[in-house]
Amino acid sequence: MDSSSFASAIILLVLVTDPLGNIPVFIGLLRQVDPARRQRIIIREVLFASGILLFFALFGQRVLRLMHLTDTSLGIAGGVILFLIALKMVFPRPEGPANHPLHGEPFLVPLAVPFIAGPSAIATVLLLVSREPHRLWEWLGAISVAMAISAVVLGFAEKIADFLGEKVTMAFERLMGLVLTAIAIEMLLAGIQKFVLQLRAV
After folding, report:
1. Planar angle of CA 52, 57, 63, nearest 5 degrees
2. Before 114, cis peptide (omega within 30)?
3. Can you give 25-65 as a three-state secondary structure string?
4. Which residues are CB-contacts of 28 (< 8 A; sequence separation ≥ 6)?
5. Residue 35: what pLDDT?
6. Domain segments of the chain: what residues?
7. What's the CA angle centered on 108, arms 105 and 110, to 5 degrees?
8. Residue 15: how many other CB atoms lie within 10 Å
9. Whole-prediction pTM value?
10. What span, in angstroms and rounded, lies between the C-alpha atoms of 126 and 57?
11. Does the pLDDT of residue 157 top 60, yes or no?
12. pLDDT digits (tens, 9 = 90+) for 69-118
């Protein structure tokens, strides 16, 4: 196993699932839930999100083949999606949990999907597996580690928010957005380069 690429995959998945950026959302949506149940809900929603990402890692290639999508188009689309997500992280809109009205206890939506296992996370998993399918077990491990990190961060969401404060949290969020922007550009350029090479080969 290539430890550097394994670590890179974990970092990328943590960036796109964005547990730190989800802290205000989770706090807001779980504010009216019994404090004794919040930890259980967070663990349940992270498990749901993990199941969704693992499903796409295991069966996503079959879905792509059925839809006649190539690795090249997936790479370009994944780069575009990550770039848009990164822009939102760097330039956040003045919106919060109030924009996501919730009645009762959250179940699957909106916490597991789309806040954790959103389009960018799914696209990233598909891209990792499509590029190097022979390293499937490595990607499954990276997903598991990234989801464990999300569970820990979100499980201590209120304590982290109180410790860091709003300004530090926002600054760190924008820093992660900047890193994700660079990753998205690399993915986009790699996809375009592969497309150009395919055109020349025709």
Report:
1. 90
2. yes
3. HHHHHCCCCCHHHHHHHHHHHHHHHHHHHHHHHHHHHHHHH
4. 96, 97, 98
5. 86
6. 3-201
7. 80
8. 25
9. 0.80
10. 6
11. yes
12. 777 787 788 788 878 877 877 887 665 544 455 566 888 988 898 889 98
Of residues 109, 85, 105, the one with CA closest to residue 21: 85
Query: Does residue 184 surpass a pLDDT of 90?
Result: no
Give the CB-side neighbour count of residue 174, counting CA atoms within 13 A: 9
> Residue with structure tokens 């916490």?
111
Name residue, tokens 């990328």: 12
Res 127: pLDDT: 87
The token duo for 160 is 């982290």
Q: Are 169 and 23 in contact (CB under 8 A)?
A: yes
**Is the Cα dihedral 41, 43, 44, 45 positive or negative?**
positive
Confidence category of residue 46, pLDDT binned at 50, 70, 90: very high
Amino acid (1-letter code) at residue 185: I
- Structure tokens given for 48: 């749901």
